[in-house]
Design goal:
With about 140 residues, this protein is an alpha+beta fold. The protein is built from one helix and five strands. The protein has a domain of about 80 residues: Nucleic acid-binding proteins (OB fold (Dihydrolipoamide Acetyltransferase, E2P)). One of its GO terms (biological process) is translation.
């Protein structure tokens, strides 16, 4: 492992491969690291390909080095402010309901009592479906 990489260093790398669990970043000709999907953005990521692409140049912070397995753990979100995405490719996919014309299908419960009532109602409905299935057998 190259001695020029140390934990907490911020370096630039190139995305070489993307998997559902994260992205591999080339730090130099011989050294690669992994940015786990949880380290791409401060927000939840459903599809990593919406945030990063092969060939992208990215700033990453080295958050871990395992000398025995020669693995480097990286973070993109550690190099960005908490209130922004690393890359927002399609703003129409944002989850902000207020920007959509239609209203949400379900009213958000405002109290614990409302939440419990909703939970009990859903539970009763599920139990009813299960009971019907069992009667058919």
């Amino acid at each position: 492992m190259s001695s020029k990489f140390e934990i907490n260093n911020i370096v630039e790398g190139t995305v070489t491969d993307i998997k559902p669990f994260g992205a591999f970043i080339a730090l130099d000709e011989k050294t690669k690291g992994l940015v786990h999907i949880s380290q791409i953005s401060h927000n939840f990521i459903n599809d990593i390909n919406e945030h990063i692409s092969v060939g992208d140049k990215v700033k990453v912070k080295i958050i871990g080095i395992d000398e025995s397995s020669k693995k480097i753990s990286l973070s993109i979100k550690a190099t960005t402010p908490n209130n922004s995405n690393y890359k927002n490719r399609d703003t129409s996919k944002n989850r902000d309901v207020s920007k959509h014309k239609s209203q949400p299908k379900f009213k958000q419960p405002s109290s614990l009592e409302d939440k419990l009532k909703d939970w009990l109602k859903e539970s009763d409905e599920r139990q009813s479906v299960l009971n019907k299935r069992n009667k058919r057998r």
